[in-house]
Protein backbone atom coordinates (compact mmCIF):
# COMPACT_ATOMS: atom_id res chain seq x y z
CA UNK A 1 0.00 0.00 0.00
CA UNK A 2 1.24 3.48 -0.76
CA UNK A 3 0.19 6.70 0.92
CA UNK A 4 -1.65 9.63 -0.63
CA UNK A 5 1.58 11.64 -0.37
CA UNK A 6 3.41 8.95 -2.36
CA UNK A 7 0.67 8.96 -5.03
CA UNK A 8 1.17 12.70 -5.44
CA UNK A 9 4.94 12.18 -5.63
CA UNK A 10 4.44 9.64 -8.43
CA UNK A 11 2.12 11.95 -10.38
CA UNK A 12 4.45 14.93 -9.88
CA UNK A 13 7.50 12.90 -10.98
CA UNK A 14 6.04 11.96 -14.36
CA UNK A 15 7.72 13.68 -17.26
CA UNK A 16 4.90 13.44 -19.80
CA UNK A 17 1.33 14.69 -19.80
CA UNK A 18 0.28 11.27 -21.07
CA UNK A 19 1.58 9.36 -18.03
CA UNK A 20 0.62 12.07 -15.55
CA UNK A 21 -2.95 11.91 -16.86
CA UNK A 22 -2.99 8.11 -16.85
CA UNK A 23 -1.70 7.79 -13.27
CA UNK A 24 -4.04 10.51 -11.97
CA UNK A 25 -7.03 8.96 -13.76
CA UNK A 26 -6.33 5.47 -12.41
CA UNK A 27 -5.78 6.82 -8.90
CA UNK A 28 -8.73 9.23 -8.76
CA UNK A 29 -11.18 6.69 -10.21
CA UNK A 30 -9.80 3.71 -8.29
CA UNK A 31 -9.16 1.71 -11.46
CA UNK A 32 -7.05 -1.34 -12.15
CA UNK A 33 -4.26 -1.09 -14.73
CA UNK A 34 -6.25 -2.56 -17.63
CA UNK A 35 -9.43 -0.69 -16.74
CA UNK A 36 -7.49 2.55 -17.17
CA UNK A 37 -5.82 1.44 -20.38
CA UNK A 38 -9.13 0.43 -21.96
CA UNK A 39 -11.02 3.64 -21.19
CA UNK A 40 -12.71 4.94 -24.31
CA UNK A 41 -13.86 8.43 -25.23
CA UNK A 42 -17.49 7.27 -25.11
CA UNK A 43 -17.06 6.02 -21.52
CA UNK A 44 -16.85 9.60 -20.22
CA UNK A 45 -20.19 11.21 -19.45
CA UNK A 46 -19.10 14.73 -18.55
CA UNK A 47 -22.68 16.03 -18.31
CA UNK A 48 -23.58 13.51 -15.59
CA UNK A 49 -20.08 13.35 -14.10
CA UNK A 50 -19.74 9.59 -14.59
CA UNK A 51 -17.31 7.12 -16.14
CA UNK A 52 -18.51 3.77 -17.50
CA UNK A 53 -16.11 0.93 -16.72
CA UNK A 54 -16.58 -2.09 -18.97
CA UNK A 55 -15.75 -5.64 -17.93
CA UNK A 56 -14.27 -4.78 -14.54
CA UNK A 57 -13.64 -7.28 -11.77
CA UNK A 58 -15.92 -10.26 -12.25
CA UNK A 59 -16.56 -9.12 -15.85
CA UNK A 60 -19.10 -6.61 -14.51
CA UNK A 61 -19.78 -3.13 -15.83
CA UNK A 62 -20.01 -0.25 -13.37
CA UNK A 63 -20.24 3.53 -13.20
CA UNK A 64 -17.83 5.68 -11.20
CA UNK A 65 -18.14 9.34 -10.23
CA UNK A 66 -15.83 11.51 -12.34
CA UNK A 67 -13.97 14.15 -10.30
CA UNK A 68 -13.75 17.56 -11.97
CA UNK A 69 -9.95 17.55 -11.66
CA UNK A 70 -9.78 14.29 -13.59
CA UNK A 71 -12.16 15.52 -16.30
CA UNK A 72 -10.08 18.67 -16.81
CA UNK A 73 -6.85 16.67 -17.02
CA UNK A 74 -8.40 14.18 -19.47
CA UNK A 75 -9.58 17.05 -21.69
CA UNK A 76 -6.14 18.67 -21.63
CA UNK A 77 -4.49 15.39 -22.61
CA UNK A 78 -7.08 14.32 -25.21
CA UNK A 79 -6.49 17.41 -27.37
CA UNK A 80 -2.87 16.27 -27.80
CA UNK A 81 -3.92 13.13 -29.71
CA UNK A 82 -7.69 13.38 -30.49
CA UNK A 83 -8.07 9.64 -30.96
CA UNK A 84 -11.72 8.94 -31.70
CA UNK A 85 -11.82 5.76 -29.62
CA UNK A 86 -9.13 5.51 -26.94
CA UNK A 87 -8.43 7.94 -24.10
CA UNK A 88 -4.92 6.45 -23.86
CA UNK A 89 -4.04 5.29 -27.40
CA UNK A 90 -0.98 3.24 -28.25
CA UNK A 91 2.12 5.21 -29.07
CA UNK A 92 5.15 4.48 -31.20
CA UNK A 93 6.27 3.96 -34.77
CA UNK A 94 3.06 2.37 -35.97
CA UNK A 95 0.78 4.79 -34.16
CA UNK A 96 1.99 8.22 -35.18
CA UNK A 97 -0.29 11.21 -35.36
CA UNK A 98 -2.10 11.60 -38.65
CA UNK A 99 -2.76 14.97 -40.27
CA UNK A 100 -4.08 17.65 -37.92
CA UNK A 101 -2.69 15.86 -34.85
CA UNK A 102 -5.21 13.02 -34.72
CA UNK A 103 -3.93 9.68 -33.43
CA UNK A 104 -4.71 6.77 -35.73
CA UNK A 105 -3.92 4.10 -33.12
CA UNK A 106 -6.38 1.23 -33.16
CA UNK A 107 -5.26 -0.18 -29.80
CA UNK A 108 -4.84 1.26 -26.30
CA UNK A 109 -1.51 2.06 -24.69
CA UNK A 110 0.31 -1.09 -23.56
CA UNK A 111 0.84 -2.36 -20.03
CA UNK A 112 4.57 -2.31 -20.76
CA UNK A 113 4.47 1.45 -21.39
CA UNK A 114 2.88 2.05 -17.99
CA UNK A 115 5.18 -0.37 -16.20
CA UNK A 116 8.24 1.17 -17.83
CA UNK A 117 7.16 4.67 -16.81
CA UNK A 118 6.49 3.51 -13.26
CA UNK A 119 9.91 1.89 -13.06
CA UNK A 120 11.59 5.14 -14.13
CA UNK A 121 9.54 7.15 -11.64
CA UNK A 122 10.21 4.87 -8.68
CA UNK A 123 13.96 5.02 -9.33
CA UNK A 124 13.71 8.83 -9.08
CA UNK A 125 11.62 8.84 -5.91
CA UNK A 126 12.94 7.57 -2.61
CA UNK A 127 10.09 6.08 -0.60
CA UNK A 128 12.44 5.27 2.26
CA UNK A 129 14.29 2.06 2.97
CA UNK A 130 13.55 -1.05 0.95
CA UNK A 131 10.93 -3.20 2.58
CA UNK A 132 10.34 -6.89 2.50
CA UNK A 133 7.02 -8.65 2.93
CA UNK A 134 7.92 -9.24 6.59
CA UNK A 135 8.61 -5.60 7.42
CA UNK A 136 5.38 -4.52 5.70
CA UNK A 137 3.48 -6.87 7.99
CA UNK A 138 5.25 -5.50 11.06
CA UNK A 139 7.19 -8.72 11.66
CA UNK A 140 10.87 -8.15 12.44
CA UNK A 141 13.15 -10.05 10.10
CA UNK A 142 15.62 -12.57 11.51
CA UNK A 143 19.20 -11.17 11.68
CA UNK A 144 20.42 -13.25 8.72
CA UNK A 145 17.64 -11.96 6.47
CA UNK A 146 17.85 -8.32 7.55
CA UNK A 147 21.40 -8.17 6.15
CA UNK A 148 20.04 -9.16 2.73
CA UNK A 149 17.32 -6.48 2.63
TrEMBL record:
Among SUPFAM superfamilies, the record links this protein to: DNA breaking-rejoining enzymes
Q: Which GO terms describe its biological process?
A: DNA integration; DNA recombination
Keywords, A to Z?
Answer: DNA recombination
Task: Tell me the domain of life.
Answer: Bacteria
Keyword Signal (UniProt): no
Q: Has UniProt tagged this entry with the keyword Cytoplasm?
A: no
* Protein's name in the database: Site-specific tyrosine recombinase XerC
Read off the lineage from the record. Bacteria, Pseudomonadati, Planctomycetota, Planctomycetia, Pirellulales
